[in-house]
Write a structure and sequence with these properties.
oxidoreductase; 2 domains; Mal/L-sulf/L-lact_DH-like_NADP; 10 strands; oxidoreductase activity; Ribosomal Protein S8, Chain: A, domain 1; 12 helices; 3-stranded antiparallel sheet; alpha+beta
């Protein structure tokens, strides 16, 4: 629930209470282990591993994060592999948990096949999110978190629920034709951002966070799940770096040099990523989180009926 609350707090509606129904559908279908017991394992090297035991990825990450930070400070960098997990949340809550401890971090994972590769006509890649964070003193970190598709699948679903057409260039229908109909997009395929560039990055994530860690790729995840209406099962890869260890012996403090870069970006009038989210967070922490009447109605229905509501 912490990541869902965080989504609402930061006005990230596609990863807020909207996700509850999908989580409950996945539980009802028996596709996630609700009493999972994640198991940590590691040797003296840089690779740490969590067997999520078929449960949601969040509990596995929380078990491994402190050890990941410790090993990154010890060796300069470390990797946390999460296997056999079900994933529904954004990656930035994990990244911020790491930047809060003074390390730079990356996180990535496959999804299930719902995105056509550049030039393709059918779903093959996942939305395959990728996130990065850099710690900053006395202010929120530099963080970005984005799907390698033009938009997150949750955004397509929110457009469908609202009866709103999609922007052009987001998706194709089942026949491979461009569409702005969210229902047709959900039956067809989303498109990668930046055409061949997003397609290449998405494929990299399939390789690093699927093939390389011995877990499911997006086509395999869809085959195992049989539907795109439930949260997908696969693995996740998180990398942590200690900037002071990497810059050791070189002139300048890496954190101070980073601030010079950020100031130069802002000095041109450009917005750093996540600034809207941090502004929404600041407002929520003083004024509270506001839900729509429809969202309250959904929560009341889920509270009253439980799994029977989905």
């Amino acid at each position: 629930m912490r990541v869902i609350v965080a989504g609402e707090r930061d006005a990230c509606k596609s990863h807020g209470v909207y996700r509850l129904e999908g989580c409950l559908r996945t539980i009802k279908a028996g596709k996630v282990e609700t009493h999972a017991n994640p198991v940590f394992s590691a040797d003296e090297g840089a690779i740490l591993r969590i067997d999520a035991d078929g449960g949601f990825a969040n509990a596995a990450f929380e078990l491994g994060a402190p050890r990941l930070v410790e090993r990154a400070h010890e060796l300069g960098m470390a990797a946390l592999v999460i296997n056999d997990c079900t994933h529904f949340s954004a990656l930035w809550p994990e990244i911020e948990a790491l930047t809060d401890k003074g390390v730079a971090a990356m996180a990535m994972c496959p999804s299930y096949a719902s995105v056509a590769p550049s030039g393709g006509t059918a779903p093959l890649l996942g939305t395959n999110p990728f996130a990065f964070g850099w710690p900053r003193k006395d202010q929120p970190p530099y963080v970005f978190d984005f799907a390698t598709s033009v938009a997150a699948r949750g955004e397509i679903e929110l457009h469908r629920q609202a009866g709103k057409p999609l922007p052009e260039g987001w998706a194709i229908d089942r026949e491979g034709n461009p569409t702005t109909d969210p229902a047709a997009a959900l039956e067809g395929a989303m498109l990668p951002f930046g055409s061949h560039k997003g397609s290449a990055i998405s494929t990299m994530i399939e390789l690093l966070a699927g093939v390389m860690i011995g877990d499911l790729t997006s086509p395999e995840a869809l085959e195992a799940l049989g539907t795109t209406t439930l949260a997908p099962a696969h693995g996740e890869l998180i990398l942590a770096f200690d900037p002071t260890r990497f810059a050791n012996g070189r002139p300048g403090d890496p954190f101070e040099r980073a601030e010079t870069l950020f100031e130069a970006i802002a000095g041109q009038g450009a917005r750093l990523p996540s600034q809207r989210r941090f502004a929404a967070r600041k407002k929520s922490l003083t004024e509270g989180i506001e839900l729509s009447a429809e969202e309250w109605s959904m929560l009341e229905r889920l509270k009253e009926k439980g799994l029977a509501a989905v």
